[in-house]
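@channel anyone free to eyeball this complex?
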Amino acid sequence: MSSRISRRRVIAGLAAVPSVAVLGGCAIGGGGGESTGATGGTAEKTPENPFGVVADSTLEVVGFSGGAVAVSYEKVHNPAIKAAFPQLQLTYTGTESQTQVLQPRFVGGTPPDFVDNTGAGQMDINALISQEQVLDLTPLFDAPSVDDPAVPLKDTLLTGTLEAATYNGVPRVVPYTTGPQGLWYDRKLFAKNGWAAPATWADFLAVLEKAKAAGLQPFGFAGKTAPDYCTTAILSSAIKAGGLDVVRNIDNLAEGAWRADAVKQALTAWAEIGAKYVARSNEGLQHTEVQLLQTQGKLAFYPCGSWLEGEMTKDIPPGFEYAMIATPSLSPADKLPAAALRATPTGAFFVAAKGKNTAAALEYLRRMLSRQSAAGHLGVTSQLTVVRDATDGVELSAGTRSAADALTAAGADTFTWKFMGWYKPMADAIKEATNGLMFGRLTPDAFADTMQKVADEVRADSSITKFQRQ
Amino acid sequence: MRHGRLRFIGGFLIIPLVLYTVFMVLPSAQSFQIAFTDWRGVSATANYVGFDNFARVFQSELFWKAMRNHGVLLLVVPLTTIVLAMYFAFLVNIGGRREGGRLHGLRGSAFYRVVFFFPQVLSVAIVGVLFQSVFRPDDAGIVNGLLAPFGVDPIGFLIDPSIALWSIIAVMVWAGVGFYFVLFSAAMAGIPAEVVEAASLDGAGRVRLFFSIIVPMVRDTVQTAWVFLGMAALDAFVLVKVLSVNNGGPDGATTMVPVQVYGKAFNEYQFGQASAAAVVLFFIIMTFAALTMRVTRREQLEY
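replying in thread with the prediction:
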């Protein structure tokens, strides 16, 4: 029984709670009416203006107000569209609290046109898509690119971008930045001690042992706020060992996906790292605290994404140089090469399906994905974007350069997983289980059983929209 | 005349009453409606799903872990806080020297009065952040840093599943004693001096005085305190959110229903299921409050 909840229904349904009879302006009462009155999109469509943006229409953009990204909106993205459409009336606001600021507007049917749904305050994209609040972006990816109108936009992006943008066969979001993820260390410290960056598991164990002998904590992660960083290392090992089928099965909630041999092999290897090389106290620390241990020279390896250096800028002492390697391969029998790594196109920029000027919002995104904007974004934020060849001529810091090099070395052998974004109960469960495994409360088998159980529960739960991937 | 007074009082009350109704009563009441829907919180439509959400709540393992944790809190927090607060209030107000037939507090009681109240000045979130440093599980933690020179291994206050809940209880008690100390002090100040003096002259020692005179005479206040503390034990949201590993961990050792409500709503966007859990919690709190009032009801003392 699907219905728009009207005031009358509310009263009828709630005869048992008489005090609610006067619902006025409540969460799901009323409803703000469909706003499909598009003020844009009616101009002539040309390769320069593929969505037919009306020159003097209005566009509302809600960007991200956190740190350097805010600067990028001001200095790069907003000027880019103003340069192309000088008469466009652009309303820009930045926020880190999308849930508080925007949720009521989606409920009321008056969302902004463009939303940067990233950061800790983001709205659940699964819920938004299942409630038909997110525009189909197929026209965007098929549109001519800004740099070369002969090439469709989708062909100017890194491998895996379109897949990351796609939910059940339909591209819905633009993941703008890409984060190669691996193990971070201090290149100078390693050079001084004569330790080589490991590519095989045996080398990895040898370096960990040397670091331990030198009085360092060999491996660490923040169990309190970021156990998922370690989850990334564990799953990367499993996928490199067993190939992409491992991650496809996990994401598609296949029967027994978590009991695959490659998964068990990775869990066993990492449980040993946890038992021998991770300090017990790490479980109670926050990511910034553990990251500080590393910049203070007390920690050898830390699993993280390419944002690490930017986050720690203020705390990097002289003589410290961030570098990143892919998770070492478990054995020579690994299905993927040693350089393979997780590169997640991250960030979810989307166009509200009920926005007033979807054409201009699409154009805004198309211009963000030009090489010039991408290079500008990289210059301001040190974030690598999904736009190909956008690092040329940009001065990069050591850590970002190292991450970019690792990404180049991986080539087409990049992978990522979706279940943590698609199914929050699984994301919560695997964080808990990662702590359990690394701090000795869960055996590899118990970890696999726990995750399989949660996956089976999610599969059976009718209230959760399911997604499939290739 | 009477009419004028009503209008006077009504004039004062109308604004707070409207605000309270619009921002407190109506949204709370609407969660009863939402609890019966599959609302995802991002559109104006929702389907009624009957008691599905409640079935989910009762089938959830985590929910029962939370109930067990609330149970422990409900037993330990009110009892410990009240006993400590009563003891301190007694010592500071009556437990000291006798002077001219009057009982006074311990030496320096004015100082203790201020010190005990300190934690109450801090917001709970700040208390949480403070105790992050106190409980930090390596040598940089305040407690572990003090113990380290004696060769004690760092204690994992919040990461050891067997003591994590107790660490949070300790914070709740530490933060709560001050307020109830002041509350009980006020209640004790309201006891007529003649009664205490008479008992004292009749040879009642301090212990006898405490149990036979003071406790019965501040009984109503203790009952109020018990209800408040019980509600705090059924909440504990802020401290768990700030202090615990992974919002209620490790392994659900410190999970609470409100933390789950928050996660269901603002992490998973299952507002229907979140509201159902909230409604269940509402009835638990009401039951607790009603039971406490009923069980401890007694005749008023007239003096």
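from a first look: The two ends of chain B are 33 Å apart (CA to CA).
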